[in-house]
Write a structure and sequence with these properties.
With 358 residues, the chain is of the alpha/beta class. The protein is globular, with a radius of gyration of 20 Å. The chain is 30% helix and 26% strand. Strands 4, 6, 7, 10, 11, 18 and 19 form a 7-stranded mixed sheet that branches. Strands 14-13-12-15-16-17 form a 6-stranded parallel sheet, with helices on both faces.
Length: 358
């Protein structure tokens, strides 16, 4: 079958091959025919080495398709079911799951260390234990979440990561209050989803900060009240908050420099929400006095900061009600053979989300 793979970490292009096989099928597993997958910035971070990932590997973790085959003991889905791929399933048995913090379940991360593809030359891993840039993938049954018939595959794929991450950060983690002021630093697909979540909760001012003009313009269409380049943030802070700082600031870049900027533009007693996935050696510096004196809440948000199955359902309901726009997030559509064009478009900021048809 066909898939896009990266041979070594640090390469900036993927190779589309046709001699790869999905492996690992058996009890508790399912085989999924991928119909659509999104390109997320985390895929690029894995390719560059910012996020740890063994190689060679198949990128992709925002996927949707149909069940081809189920292994022994699988009861949550059956052959023919339409599903989205959950890259971080909850095992239901670990300490995090028992506390109700299913987004912190480590079981899904452990899958990333087991190859789920092979080629004549050897084993191939799937990014985040999945690897959806392929015609088929074998994953744990809990990774396959049934979707309603009215949800297109390309929309379901986005719900599988970027949309849930962004909207969940606003709703589950930060719990944005109606009438509040919000700033979002980084307005790609996840940042735009944060904006939509803040708008749905009734934020009064939502300032979108991004160096790419097209992304700032897009942010206005999705609910931002203002779109500015990074150099205009100080002025916006003074105009909108009288210099006090925003009630909520979301960092959706994954770098310590932008996280520090976000901290400095959060009001005393306000909330800084870290959504971007950064490198392990990129350290954020905050001195102990300001940490104590400013009483700013620093809240990291992993995968939307809540139960992902509940979050999926919420997103679908908001989409059906017209409260959020998911179709508009997809600015580019490509075939698997054009995957490197899609990667270039994301690197330049041209694309919010690209849907790849497998």
């Amino acid at each position: 079958m066909r898939a896009a793979i990266q041979q070594e970490i640090g390469q900036d292009k993927l190779e589309v091959v046709d001699d790869i096989e999905a492996v690992g099928f058996g009890p508790g597993k399912v085989r999924i025919r991928i119909r659509a997958t999104g390109l997320c910035h985390s895929d690029l971070s894995a390719m560059s080495g910012v996020l740890p990932q063994p190689a060679p590997f198949v990128p992709g973790h925002e996927g949707a398709g149909e069940i081809i085959e189920v292994g022994e003991g699988v009861t949550n889905v059956k052959a023919g079911d339409r599903v989205l791929v959950c890259w971080l399933p909850a095992c239901g048995a670990c300490a995090s799951c028992k506390r109700g913090q299913t987004q912190l379940c480590i079981a899904g991360f452990l899958n990333a260390g087991t190859p789920n593809y092979k080629r004549p030359g050897g084993d191939v891993f799937g990014f985040a234990g999945t690897g959806t840039f392929a015609e088929e993938v074998v994953v744990d049954a809990l990774c396959a979440v049934p979707i309603p018939d009215d949800v297109p595959y390309e929309i379901a794929a986005l719900i599988g990561c970027g949309v849930t991450t962004g909207i969940g950060a606003a709703i589950n983690t930060a719990k944005v209050e109606a009438g509040s002021s919000v700033a979002v630093i980084g307005c790609g697909g996840v940042g735009i989803s944060v904006i939509q979540g803040a708008r749905a909760l009734g934020a009064a001012e939502i300032v979108a900060i991004d160096p790419v003009e097209s992304r700032r313009e897009a942010a206005l269409r999705f609910g931002a009240t203002e779109g500015i380049a990074p150099g205009g943030l100080a002025d916006a802070k003074n105009r909108i908050t009288a210099g006090e700082g925003f009630d909520y600031v979301f960092e959706v870049v994954g770098k310590s420099a932008t996280a520090r900027t976000a901290y400095e533009n959060t009001r005393r007693g306000g909330t800084l929400c870290i959504v971007g996935a950064g490198a392990m050696d990129d350290n954020l510096q905050i001195n102990m006095f300001e940490l104590f004196f400013d009483e700013k809440r620093i809240l990291p948000s992993l995968y939307g900061g809540g139960d992902v199955l509940r979050s999926y359902e919420r997103v679908i309901k908001l989409w059906r009600a017209g409260r959020i726009d998911l179709e508009g997030l997809i600015t580019h559509r490509v075939r698997l053979e054009e995957i490197n064009d899609a990667i270039d478009q994301m690197r330049t900021g041209e694309a919010l989300r690209t849907c790849i048809t497998i």
